[in-house]
Amino acid sequence: MDDSDASALVDGALQHDDEAARALVRRLYPLVVKVVRAHRPRRTAEEDLCQMIFIKVFQKLSQFSGKVPLEHWVSRIAVNTCLNQIESERVRPELRHADLSEEEQAVVQNLATSSDELAPDQRFASRQLVEHLLAALKPVERLAIDLLYLQGRSVEEIRKITGWSAALIKVRAFRARQKMKGQLAKISAREKL
After folding, report:
1. 64 and 73 in contact (C-beta within 8 Å)?
2. Whole-number pLDDT of residue 165
3. Residues of the chain with confidence (pLDDT) below 50
4. DSSP state of 118
5. Residue 29: its pLDDT value, please?
6. How far apart are CA 80 and CA 85, in angstroms?
7. Could you tell me the pTM of the whole model?
8. At what angle do helices 46-59 and 70-91 cross, to 10 degrees?
9. What are phi and psi of 30, to 5 degrees?
10. Which pLDDT score, from 0 to 100, does residue 35 have?
11. In sequence order, which ranges of the chain are alpha helices (DSSP H)?
């Protein structure tokens, strides 16, 4: 796309010309898809990310000065959007029903529908599910849960090992349990859909 053609499309889109906006999307879409495919986070759909990028492009179109080619400006928005999405997924990991093995899905289903004891063949899957839930926690929360519940240590023993106060241990364990319950509830809710 040459600079004068791009400038005309940008001006038209800024004047709320729908046809100019459509033409701009048609011309920039291959570039945006190429960037998204190269930088797409694991859990975000390609189309969703492209839409997010075009929303940002049109929101910031008035800031386009024309000093650089439009493709470069859009590429920068696309790369930054992808990197921001990767960072948000890293900071807030989410466990999805589809991320679980069939055995782990069976454990979630059993927990959601029954109060019976787990069958011996589901115990391993339940341990794997707990490990998935623990992976979503901060390291200090994971340590609190591991020491308190998985290793069965007392609050006093944990206090001596970590140097944390008893109140801090209880608060971290409580918050970690709440996060794990929330993740499990999300998985169960998605399975019901």
Report:
1. yes
2. 92
3. none
4. P
5. 92
6. 9
7. 0.48
8. 120
9. -60, -40
10. 84
11. 3-14, 18-39, 46-59, 70-91, 102-113, 120-135, 139-145, 155-162, 166-192
